[in-house]
User: Fold this.
Amino acid sequence: MLIRTLSALECTKLLTANRIGRLACAKDGQPYVVPIHYAHSDNHLYAFSMPGKKIEWMRGNPLVCVEVDERGKGRGWRSVVVDGRYEELPDQIGHKVERDHAWSVLSKHADWWEPGALKPAIPPVLDSASPVFFRILIQQVSGREAGE
Assistant:
């Protein structure tokens, strides 16, 4: 088996071609990893979630990591790791353009709201928790590929 480093362009193509990644965040030295559904655009990974542990932890420590992989032929695989920064896109004045862009990028893909929750309602239902739209600013990316 041969393992090689992916170029920046190959990493970008893998991020763009996939929708599910594993988000790692940390609080008080404790790591937490969870799958997320994302869309890649510009130099960001866009996603949304209902409020919960990962949102709380990323608000406290915005440095995160996302891993995306795909299987190849036989025992082959490709994997990309993104080091980045969590940026929340609140439903407030001053964030409308970024939030609308996140909605636009995510909604290009069928069932984009899964596995985060039910499809968000616009406007949000007042008696329910509102979805949190966020993006990960890609600060560094690396990747590897294994093949026969």
User: Anything to note?
Assistant: The first helix runs from residue 8 to 17. The mean pLDDT is 88.
